[in-house]
Amino acid sequence: MSTQATNTISTAALPAWVKAITLPLILTLIWQAWAMTLPENSPAPAPLKVVESFIALTASGELIWATIQSLGRVLGGFGIAMVGGLGLGVLMGSSRVVRENLDPIVESFRPIAPMAILPIAILWFGTGTPAALTIVAYAAFFPLLINTIYGVSGVDRQLVRAAATMGISRLRTVFVVIVPAAIPSVLLGSRLAMGVAWTAIIAAELAVGAKSGGGTSGGIGQMMFVFYAYSIDLNGIVVCMIVVGVVALMIDRLFRLAERFLLPWRN
Amino acid sequence: MTVSQLHSKSAPKLRLKGVSKEFIAPRTGQRTLAVTDFNMDVQAGEFICVVGPSGCGKSTVMNMIAGLDTPTTGSIEMDGAKIQGPGAERGVMFQDYALFPWKTVRDNVGFGLRHGTAGRGLTSAESEDRINHFVELVGLKAAEGKFPHQLSGGMRQRVALARLLANGPDVLLMDEPLGALDAQTRLLLQVELLRIWGETGDAGDRKTVVFITHGIDEAVFLADRVVVMSSHPGRVSAVIDIDIPRPRGEHIRSEARFGQLTEEIWSLIRDEAYRAIA
Predict the structure, then answer these.
(1) Least C-beta-crowded within 10 Å: which of A201, A207, B108, B194?
(2) Using the beta-carbon criterion (under 8 Å), do A167 and B116 form an inter-chain contact?
């Protein structure tokens, strides 16, 4: 009886988080089993060594500080991009004259990868936080701008006309009709922008770390560079990769939460 | 009393004089005469229906009265003053309702009071009372916290009507407001619309209505006068007085006079309607 009951349990009944960790757990076990066949002094990363490295880096405070530094730069750069992207996006989305004049400039800068402007950023701002902020802001700017333009220019004209017939001024209509109607697109843009900002910061810190010889630029990217170029510690690099992934996941979940809070009228 | 005051006193609520509208296509520069030589006086408290074949410029006329479009020639006056642009004194109910999808039923109804000129001088308690009144009038009290996408077509239409009325316009401009509804709901809402308009009350309390429809029976049921338009270019081909006494109930639909008037209007449109589908 009881064995029969266990056999018929379907995976559909399991909570989502159990499903989410099952496969990673199995892969980690396989990885660990493989690592245990290697000689003791092998530099190849192994799950248990990664955990050891994680504990050591956390205990020393290095990891937390590096994460805070990188995250701070992402948020700072994202904030700058937000001001620029939203401001310009609303202007370009609502005025055809502005859009037609700026579109060629925007579209010719957009394909230039954030890393490609790194040399200029370093020459102008040195190897510290300002250079990193520039790269992040540049990377996050375009998804925000493009999605804001799309959202604003795609606002149902009928809603704008309806507002006019209610005696609502044009300026007020921008704030009470056009901006709220564009929020779904802006949120999508923000999510995309946050993703590329986080990618850009790690790359920027790696590169800036290389330029400054592993110096004091800080951040997770620089930490990875030090593990790579100086201590040749692959376990440390894996710790950094995991932290980057987990932080990105948390940011994405926060955005989804914000969406549910800001857009209760969608589904 | 000065002459101009006397004049404005006797002026109709709305006066359209020699109105024409020509659209110029942005790329090709091709000109289309949508409406020509349109003349119409609408008295205060009058219920006017405009009927005509598709593409005869009914909506263009309404948009010009609303101030959303400007006439190419001629003038449109309200209470003797030229209409310069949209304003809260001329409320519009759009064919697709144009509800704000991010606002609840209640917030849609109160949108104009909150952000527009009509709410000036009202305390927030007065605004709330007014919103309550109209939400209840259209029977949506229970659904006032819902968003438009959660409502049926008939309910959205009621929200649009409550929003129109709550803003307190002098003139109601309605562009095929019942067009998207199924036949039964449509008949019920026609009766309800007349009740809300104030058919049973004092004629002096009624709003001025310009109601666009392609339903001839709907026009006969609702209107004091029916303006029949013909197309290419859009112009007035006839104005028919509907002499069926008010208040009108469902029963008038089966009366001989109702049938006669419907037939009379249909005969004016028929040839053109056939040509349009040929």
Answers:
(1) B194
(2) yes
Q: Angle, nearest 10°, between helix axes A179-211 and A129-153?
A: 160
pLDDT under 50: residue ranges of chain B: 1-9
Residue A42 domain flag: no
Which residue from B85, B90, B94 is facing A162, i.e. has the nearest CB? B94
ipTM computed for the complex: 0.87
Residue A8 has pLDDT above 60, yes or no: no
The answer to whether B88 contacts A166, with C-beta atoms less than 8 Å apart, is yes
CATH number at residue A157: 1.10.3720.10
Q: Read off φ and ψ for residue B154, nearest 5 degrees.
A: -65, -40
Question: What are residue B241's DSSP bridge partners?
Answer: B225
pLDDT recorded at residue B138 = 84
Q: Is A96 exposed, middle or buried (0-12, 13-18, 19+ CB in 10 A)?
A: exposed
Q: Decide if B118 and A167 are in contact by the 8 Å CB cutoff.
A: yes
Topology of the domain covering B34-89+171-278: Rossmann fold (3.40.50)
pLDDT of residue A118: 84
Does residue A105 lie within any of the structural domains? yes
Q: Could you check whether the bond before residue A143 is cis, i.e. omega within 30 degrees of 0?
A: no
Short-list A27, A23, A245, A229, CA closest to A35: A27
Mutate to test the interface with A, among B68, B100, B131, B172 (most CBs of A within 10 A): B100
Q: What is the pLDDT of residues A21-58, one digit of tens each?
A: 899 899 999 999 998 898 878 888 888 889 999 999 89
Q: Show the domain range for A120.
A: 49-262
Cis status, amide bond into A45, omega within 30 of 0: no
**Residue A163, C-beta contacts closer than 8 angstroms, at least 6 positions apart:** A172, A173, A176, A177, B111, B115, B116
Partners of residue A160 in chain B, C-beta under 8 Å: none
In this complex, how many residue pairs, one in chain A and one in chain B, have their CB atoms less than 8 Å apart? 72
